[in-house]
Give the backbone structure.
Amino acid sequence: VDYLEKPVTVHQIGESVEKAIRLTRQRRRTQQVASSVKELGQAQKRMIHLNEQHAEVNVKIGYHPKLEAGGDYFIHFRTGPGEHFCLLTDVSGHDLQAAYLSAYFQGFVRGMLQCGWPPVNIFQSINQQLLQEWGGDDLGGADNTSVAACGIGLNLKNRTVNVLTCGVPAPIHVFANNRASYFGAHGGFPIGWFPDFQFEAANHAISDQDQYFLWTDGIVDLAERLMVHPLTIGHRLLDKSAVTDLPELDLAADDILFVRVRLTGATVPTPHFSPLILEQYHGGMAGEIDRLESGWARSLKLALPKISDATRHNILLVSREAVLNGLQHGCQNNPDQSVTYQLSVQPEKRIIRIWVDDPGPGHQFDHQHQESILDSELPGRHLGLVLIHTLAQVVTFERNRASLIMDFYY
Amino acid sequence: MQPLKNTLTQKDQILTLCPGGDLTSTTAASVRATVQFLFELPEGQPVPWKVLQLDLNAAQKVDSVGLNLIVNIFKAVQKAGGKMQIICTNQNVHRTLLFTRLDKFAEVVKL
């Protein structure tokens, strides 16, 4: 609205009308751009979720771009009979340019794979392209583009999986027994940083029930901010019904993409567990047990906000006892040795399962004998093991009790 | 983190030990230090109290190291000819005490 003071001249009216026309055009352009960006974002989401539909391999994706469209992307396609390739990419930035480049690289990789190029050579080629054609010699420039990527090649006939990572968090392989393990190491450099192309590669054997979890560093940033394990955010993202009540996502400074790839070949499938925490603690960390426990508590609360206070207390106390036991007795407090802690959930059967593994020789503990003497004798040694047996619903052991597996129903 | 403040007070014949928070592997040493004299009492020496009350109202959890400390305090109190009473308000702490049968030896009061 333009207010004119009387007396109004013809020139003033003309200027005012011109200004109004200019503003109206600008507003319409902005609206048009906003609408186009929104459409682009919706198309990107649709394209990402198209990857979920496939026999042999079941893919579930949680995607939350920072803006309408983003630089994180995922594709999954068959490269031959019984052969699949999954590619997760994260282009630097989270704007429209990143979204465009992301789509370009995914298309490039798909085309090259279909021509029979090995993934390493494709990544190398992209590295060269980025440095020579896109970035020129201006390696420190603001316009320099890089791509963090993770490629997973599944060969269901040879029963192998090959993983290639460049600058993204190491993905997780969950085996048929629901034990989880990282594929290679975290970090590394994204494609497009250095002429000397570096990558992390790992090969594992697979079985019909295996699962793979991969994610972009937007989740890692948010997890650090919330002081939880990245897998817990991923778990909530995949639980579509629960995402709407996850206001923490608004704190994300970057695009977020989390993918679960599940093989569906088992003739008699057993329940899949999804990992929520997978960590290693070195033998010198016994003094940090309160900090570790706080982290488990926050992760558990974020992933499963509705479990009862009593169940949460039992899980945390038993985890504390088992990890401390592993650090002090299994590792003998030696920083060169470590305890592995895994907490997973089976939502349909409502089971939380915890694995604690230490490198020690194990121990002999007769829980039934200990239980029988508790009524007549003051509790003495092994109180930690008594608590574990009492508070967990099911306790099993492997490797002469150096591996402890505990189930909690919730 | 600020260390938790443990207190020891006596009223009439009741000596009350009140840990400032959880009774766990990271706090047990400071709670033990508060009642160190108990473990150093000469055999047969009379004590000016009859009941040691362990007030766990500030505790949200007690782990195995905390339970071991409670057992050791109980033994020292018993040696001194006294009785022990444990007070708690937290349901989880109460369950932990019952599961380890500490209620068979000391009076456990859930408020």
About this structure: The mean pLDDT of chain B is 93.
